[in-house]
C-alpha cells in the first residue's frame, strides 16, 4: 500500500525542527542577512539537535535516518529561513562526497572530526565549480599532476564554493587526465591551511545572504597519494552526488514556497479592497490556489524521490538508482520553478508592500531565484530526466553544473 505518511520518528524530528525554525530562525532572518551568517548560538543549537549528521550512516557517526528524514529537515529549516540550511555548516556536501567517492572507511575517517565535542565549529566544503571552461577539451581547468614522491600537485581556481571562508577541509575536483576529458576527473581532500591554498573573495549574492559563497585558488598545492578519493572518476557516482544534493535544495525550495504561500494567504485575507478581503476576488483566489497546488505537488515529488534513494541504498540495485535519479530530476526541476512562482506571486499580491523589507516576501523572491542556481539547476535536471526517459547515455557536461554549460553553487 502506498503511504506518504511520515513515521512516528520522522514526525518527531520534523516537529522539533519546525519549532526550531519558527522560534529561532524566522524571527531573526533580517539579523542573519545583515550579519551575512548565522550566529554561533543558532549553529550550536542546530548541532545539538543532531541536524547536520541526521542522514549520514551510523557507522560514520551519523544518525542513520536516511534521505527522507533529511528532506523533511531541509524543508522545515527553509520554512524558517531558506538561507539557514546553507549556512549551518557541518559536513554537508563534503560528507556526502567523502562517503560516495571515498567509500565507507575513508568516509568514516573524513567524517570523524564532525562528530563529538566541538564539532559545531567544523565545516567542510566541496570545490567543484570553476570560473571558466577549458578551451580545447572537456572537463575542468584545475589540474592534478603526480609528484616525484607519489603525491599530487593541484593547480587552478575553483568558484561558487559554499562555505569557502569557513571550511577547515575541502574536497577539490581536478583534471587528472586531460586526454580523457570528463572521464579524467579526480577528487582530493585538501586541508584549508595547505601551503599554496588561498581563499578568494566572498561573493555578493542576490539572495541567501546568510550563506557564504566564495572560491579558492590552488597555487601548487601538494597533497599525499592517499588524499585522492578512489571513486571520483565514476560518472554514475558524479551524477548521483549532484542529484542527491539537488534534492536537498529542492526540499528547501518546498519550505520557501510553503512560507511564501502561508504569509501571502494571510495577507490577502487581512487586506481589504472594495469592502472585502482581496483574497475573495477570483483572480487572487485562483493565484493562491495555484501556489498551494505547487507546494503539495513539489513536496510529494521530493518525498517520493527521497524514498527511492533510501530504497536504492538498501539494495544497491542499478535500476533502483536510475529510477531515483529520474524522480529526483523531476522533483528538482518542478520544485525550483514552484519556489520561484511562490516568491514572485507573494511580492505581486502584497502590492507596494511586497518590495518593502517590512515584509519577508521580497527576501523569499530573491532566495528563490538563487535556489535555482544551487547544485543541479532545473535545466540540468531536465537534461538528466530526458536522457533517462529515452534510455540514452547521460552526457556529463549537460547534466553537471560546469562552466561549459551553467555553473552552480555547491
Q: Can you walk me through this structure?
A:
The protein has 410 residues and is an alpha+beta fold. The protein has helices at residues 8-25, 29-35, 40-48, 66-80, 84-87, 92-111, 235-270, 282-315, 318-349, 361-371, 378-389, 396-399; strands at 124-127, 143-146, 152-162, 169-175, 185-191, 197-199, 213-223, 228-229, 272-273, 276-277. It is 49% helix and 13% strand. The strands form 3 sheets. The chain has a 4-stranded mixed β-sheet with strand order 1-4-5-8, covered by helices on one side. Strand 9 and strand 10 (276-277) form a beta hairpin. Helix 4 packs parallel to helix 7, helix 9 runs antiparallel to helix 10 and helix 9 packs antiparallel against helix 11.
Q: How many extended strands?
A: 10
- Beta-sheet strand percentage? 5-15%
Question: What structural class results from the helix and strand content?
Answer: alpha+beta
CA(first)-CA(last) distance: 37 Å
Residue-averaged pLDDT, rounded? 95
Query: What is the global morphology?
Result: globular
User: Helical stretch count?
Assistant: 12
Strand order of the largest sheet: 1-4-5-8
Radius of gyration: 21 Å
Summarize the helix and strand pattern as letters: HHHHHHEEEEEEEEHEEHHHHH
Helix content: 40-55%
**Low-confidence runs:** none
Largest sheet: 4 strands, mixed
